[in-house]
Amino acid sequence: PSVPSRHGAGKAEDTFKTSPFHLDLWFYFTLQNWVLDFGRPIAMIILPLEWFPLNKPSAGDYFHMAYNVITPFLLLKLIERSPKTLPRSMVYVSIITFVMGASIHLVGDSVNHRLIFSGYQHHLSVRENPIIRNLKPETLIDSFELLYYYDEYLGHSMW
């Protein structure tokens, strides 16, 4: 069967029925998700904390950064192989939104990881945490609440 050009010169319905499932790309998505997402905490447990001071990126942060770089390329490759085309601007906005959300999440996770090593109690709200409650000036508490909002609400929604 003939494959339509990138801009839809053939019948979309016919090619959709005969188009192959892109097992290779889905395999790469799965592999990179398992290695980079599930491997993050494992790498942070295995590698000594002394190698990654709290004011520098941790092993988990590097895994997260790789995820933020690799995933958009895999998404673009998957979209390129799609029998149905989307407007370029829609593809670009979607990829940019994903990268921004994943990056916001990276920063939030990174700071949260360091706070836990400093005694932050994850089960309490930002304002109820003993180490946060004693911050001076008190406006710093608002900054940590903003960081939490960016990570948990805005970053996750975009990601």
Automatic annotation (TrEMBL):
Gene Ontology CC entries for this record: endoplasmic reticulum; membrane
Pfam families attached to this UniProt entry: CLN6
Species in which this protein is naturally found: Quiscalus mexicanus (Great-tailed grackle)
Keyword line: Membrane, Transmembrane, Transmembrane helix
The name this protein goes by in its record: CLN6 protein
Positions of transmembrane segments: 62-79, 91-108
Keyword check for NAD: no
BP terms from Gene Ontology: lysosome organization
